[in-house]
Design goal:
Distance between the termini of chain A: 28 Å
Number of helices of chain C: 13
CATH superfamily of the largest domain in chain A: P-loop containing nucleotide triphosphate hydrolases
Shape of chain A: elongated
Helix content of chain A: 10-25%
Chains: A alpha+beta, B mainly alpha, C mainly alpha
Structural class of chain A: alpha+beta
CATH class of the domain at 74-256 in chain C: Mainly Alpha
Number of helices of chain A: 9
Number of strands of chain C: 2
Strand content of chain A: 25-35%
Number of strands of chain A: 21
Number of domains of chain A: 2
CATH topology of the domain at 74-256 in chain C: MetI-like fold
Structural class of chain C: mainly alpha
Largest sheet of chain C: 2 strands, antiparallel
Radius of gyration of chain C: 23 Å
Oligomer: heterotrimer
Strand order of the largest sheet of chain C: 1-2
Largest interface: B-C, 95 and 106 residues
Shape of chain C: globular
Chain lengths: ~375, ~280, ~300
């Protein structure tokens, strides 16, 4: 299989800070795989270890079955697109792209052809003679891409390549990158902290937090079936509620939230005692207050945010928590129900309610922050 | 942004002080340069324009052996100094910048010490070194060169290191990523990017060497090891001719040209802001 | 992958050089100072610390504490340096402030003018003044006609008309000022420039007058720059001998540097010279390390605070 990466118990320590805490990840060949997480979670360190710029403290990095953890970066068939593009300032675009071809035993003509093809692939052929400082951010990024892809690596690593670009450019490049990956069929390993970017582009996502992989799955699964509170919260609104799990009744778990009983059919339904439950905003059904009955929480609307195609309605339920519901703007909801102060009833369908047991660490002080910051001494192998 | 008033009144007052300072600072030297072109022997009374003290038959920089030799010796020391201090300093800068683990702090301090040590302390220390320890070498040109190298080294390191910091590790990483082995990372990527700083630091070392006085004097042996600075010192209070002004002017010209060259090289290849900080020598 | 020793090896030649020609050289000073001298008054260095003879150093110290000539010279040196630094601050701060704040489009030219003296041979700058202050010099005439000479005479700052270059402390101090003030202004300019204008705007915003904004915001924030500049110029000044030699040529204005120079280059008592050098270094050690500390910290933070 070409371009498969497996990380086994991969660990990286800097002085006394643990940046990557023994992770196991499978990155199948030919996929667009994303490492997603907040700054300091270890995603960039992991990527750098795959590239070879950091030496793992322990663990294995298997590239198509071979452990490359101690192989220097210039001997791995893996190429990187850097966050700052790192185009060589003293060389023009064409020479930048041709840089790595020197080590590939090609004739002069073959080199020139490959360079041209690579530049055409990223639409930068006319800029061949320019220097890096004469290009815009988006253009530099393309050249960086071409420079890496011209070497036909099995795996392409991308370290937050779209971070420095403005929103519109970002969206366009997201589409282009995804199309490029599909066309080339090679493995892309993409690092980002932007969850919507990850959801849009990836075939699989590994959500990282504090050096560990919280969950690795498809975007849909990560969004709809998060394993932990962190993952639930990181991707979209999660509407987390503190609850007490009372017991199971067939497929459903009965939980008590603020004095009311709800049923949950997702997640850790066999849990007991203190848990958290979550439901995505678009699964909450907003009903008039008059509707009572099972699976409902009464509340008062605090405000409604108009988003064009929908409303995000903030409802303070009688237990005190704030829930956010997504109501489509299709006329189905009575406008009176969306006014601040309106009394409403929120129906939470059991198949959309998920029980989560992992305790929520304090996110406010992320001690791992330092390991990803720039003042960690860059360790050239 | 609105112009903030200063507490002493209008900016005009400050402008006056600044202007006055600049005049006070520069004019005496300009007058000294002017008198280098004096037709007569006086350094205080103008007697007409002439270049006799530069190129004249007798007593000029070009023809007076004492003056000529001093200039020659100054340049000789500068060339030796640059030839040794530059590679030594570049290596030290690279090694220091990439030093991993303990010791880098001490080495860094050691490197900076010559810059803050008063010259007489260095002069005395080196004098005793060459009298008591390396008496085989003794005083003279070699000792002078060694002494100069010892502190110009620091200038080279500071300049090159500054450039290394702004270059950062990522270009070499990118090169490695693209398949370049260690050697190529250095020669194909780092060295070209570092070149302007190396040239600039060499030029600065040259200029510093030319104008050095205390260490050079302390390590001198006889008249043949006299430099322009030493000549100025020994003759200034005597009754010299404007030839002294002339040689000082020549010295100054060489210094300014060297520095202008360094600034230009840096600016052309490394960017404007870098050149500006080079000029202010932020140590 | 490269070992941790590769880069250290690259640095080795430079480190070795500095170790030999700086550290060992300084050790030689100590060996001589704690050594002995032969019948021809040539030094006999004692290299082994266990052999060290504190005699000469103690004699030198004794000279200080019992009011001998060394003490006089030291006090004079401290006076000269203190006054010169104070004057540098008085003149230099407004110049630095103006250049940083109000120079506008003239800034480049002004900076050039400020940088220039740094690269003009120090001795040439002194030569310029010797020419001017000679009894028949232009400077002498100007000072006479403008009345400054008279002022200085009456204030006791000048001994006789036209005698600027005859052992006058005033001239030495002013020469030191002239010589070193550029090295003060430039770092100070950089420090003032770095002060975030938003602090000042905030002070003004909160109702402060320009004067109070200056005294309560700008000035305190520029103190580190002032200290750094003061240390930067006082270090060489304490060791200066050539300035006094050039503009005074009288032992009346001897600074510590002159004292050491006499012993080392002109006289024969190198042991005492070494002892004095040692004592001077110890005295200045504090200043040197302070400066190293602040510049290293300044390298990693963006603001002067």
């Amino acid at each position: 299989m070409e371009g498969e990466i497996r990380l086994e118990e991969l660990c990286k320590k800097f002085e006394d800070v643990v940046a990557v805490d023994g992770i196991d990840v499978d990155m199948p060949p030919g996929e667009f795989f994303t490492l997603l997480g907040p700054s300091g979670c270890g995603k960039t360190t992991t990527l750098r270890m795959i590239a070879g710029f950091e030496r793992p403290t322990s663990g294995r990095i298997l590239l198509d079955g071979n452990d490359v953890a101690r192989v220097p970066p210039h001997q791995r068939n893996v190429n990187t697109v850097f966050q700052s593009y790192a185009l060589f300032p003293h060389l023009d675009v064409a020479k930048n792209v041709a840089f790595g071809l020197k080590y590939h035993k090609l004739s002069k003509e073959e080199r020139a052809t490959r360079v041209r093809d690579a530049l055409e692939m990223v639409d930068m052929a006319e800029f061949a003679g320019r220097k890096a400082d004469q290009l815009s951010g988006g253009q530099q990024q393309r050249v960086a891409l071409a420079r890496a892809l011209v070497l036909r690596p099995r795996v392409l690593l991308l370290d937050e390549p779209l971070g420095a670009l403005d929103a519109q450019l970002r969206k366009n490049l997201q589409v282009e990158l995804k199309a490029l990956q599909a066309e080339l069929g090679i493995t892309f390993i993409f690092v980002t902290h932007d969850q919507s970017e990850a959801l849009t582009m990836s075939d699989r996502i590994a959500v990282m937090y504090r050096g560990r992989v919280e969950q690795a799955a498809s975007p849909k699964e990560i969004y709809e079936e998060p394993d932990t509170v962190f993952v639930a919260d990181f991707l979209g609104v999660s509407n987390l509620l503190d609850a007490t799990a009372l017991g199971q009744d067939g497929a459903a778990c009965t939980v008590e939230v603020g004095g009311r009983k709800l049923r949950a059919e997702q997640g850790a339904t066999d849990a007991r005692g203190e848990v958290k439950v979550m439901i995505r905003p678009e699964r909450i059904v907003l009903e008039p207050h008059a509707n009572q009955g099972d699976d409902r929480l009464p509340g008062i609307v605090e405000r409604s945010v108009f988003l064009g195609g929908s409303y995000e309605v903030h409802v303070r339920v009688l237990g005190g928590e704030l829930l956010r519901a997504m109501v489509p703007n299709d006329g189905s909801a009575a406008s009176a129900d969306l006014e601040p102060g309106a009394a409403v009833s929120l129906r939470l369908p059991p198949d959309a309610v998920r029980v989560l047991t992992r305790s929520e660490p304090d996110e406010a002080t992320d001690g791992v922050e330092e390991s990803e910051a720039e003042d960690v001494p860059a360790q050239l192998p | 942004m609105s112009r903030l008033r200063n507490p002493w009144g209008q900016p005009r007052f400050l402008a006056l002080i600044t202007g006055g300072y600049i005049v006070w600072s520069v004019v005496p030297v300009l007058i000294a340069i002017a008198f280098a072109f004096n037709n007569g022997r006086s350094r205080t009374t103008w007697q007409g324009f002439s270049t006799r003290w530069f190129t004249g038959e007798t007593g000029s920089v070009l023809h007076d052996p004492a003056l000529r030799d001093a200039l020659g010796h100054t340049l000789l020391l500068a060339v030796i100094c640059v030839a040794v201090a530059t590679p030594l300093g570049v290596a030290l800068a690279l090694g220091l910048q990439r030093w991993r683990g303990r010791g880098s702090g001490s080495v860094n301090s050691l490197m900076l010490l010559p810059l803050v040590t008063p010259e007489i302390v260095m002069g005395v220390a080196l004098l005793l070194l060459f009298l008591q320890v390396f008496s085989g070498i003794g005083l003279g040109t070699d000792a002078q060169a060694i002494g100069q190298i010892t502190f110009t080294l620091s200038y080279v390191v500071v300049i090159v290191r500054g450039r290394l910091v702004s270059i950062g590790p990522e270009f070499e990483e990118a090169a490695a990523d693209l398949g370049a082995p260690r050697r190529d990372q250095f020669f194909r990527v780092l060295l070209p990017l570092l070149a302007p700083a190396i040239v600039a630091s060499a030029a600065v070392a040259f200029a510093v060497s030319i104008d050095d006085f205390v260490v050079t004097q302390y390590l001198s042996s006889d008249a043949s090891t006299t430099t322009v600075s030493m000549l100025l010192y020994s003759s200034a209070r005597g009754a010299p001719t404007p030839a002294l002004n002339a040689i000082a002017t020549v010295n100054l010209l060489i210094t300014l040209l060297t520095l202008a060259f360094a600034y230009y090289v840096y600016r052309r290849f490394a960017g404007r802001d870098e050149a500006a900080s080079l000029a202010t020598m932020e140590v | 992958m490269r070992s941790r020793w590769t880069w250290r090896l690259v640095a080795l030649p430079g480190v070795a050089w500095l170790s030999v020609f700086f550290l060992v050289a300084f050790y030689a000073v100590m060996a001589v100072a704690f050594g002995n001298q032969d019948t021809l008054s040539q030094p006999i260095p004692h290299w082994n610390p266990l052999d060290w003879n504190v005699g000469y150093v103690l004699d030198t110290l004794d000279n200080f504490f019992s009011g001998g000539p060394f003490l006089k010279v030291s006090i004079r040196t401290i006076e000269f340096v203190a006054i010169a630094v104070a004057l540098s601050l008085l003149i230099g701060y407004p110049v630095a402030y103006f250049t940083a704040r109000h120079a506008g489009r003239w800034r480049g030219a002004i900076l050039l003018a400020l940088i220039l003296p740094l690269w003009i041979n120090y001795l040439m700058r002194m030569l310029a003044w010797i020419n001017l202050l000679a009894p028949d010099g232009i400077g002498s005439d100007v000072l006479h006609s403008v009345g400054i000479e008279k002022l200085f005479l009456t204030m006791g700052l000048l001994d006789e008309p036209g005698g600027w270059l005859n052992g006058q402390p005033t001239t030495v101090i002013l020469a030191l000022l002239y010589g070193y003030i550029p090295f003060f202004i430039l770092p100070l300019f950089v420090a003032i420039e770095r002060i975030d204008r938003r602090h000042i705007e905030a002070a003004r915003d909160l109702g402060g007058s320009p004067a109070s904004a200056f005294f309560r915001v700008t000035l305190p924030l520029s103190v580190p720059g002032i200290l750094a500049g003061a240390v930067l110029i006082s270090l060489p000044m304490f060791g200066d001998y050539y300035t006094a030699d050039l503009v005074s040529a009288s032992t009346q204005t001897n600074m510590m540097g002159n004292q050491i120079d006499e012993f080392m280059r002109q006289g024969s008592e190198k042991v005492t010279g070494a002892a004095l050098t040692l004592l001077l270094s110890v005295f200045l050690l504090g200043l040197m390390f302070y400066y190293l500390r602040t510049t290293r910290r300044a390298g990693t933070t963006a603001q002067t605070t």
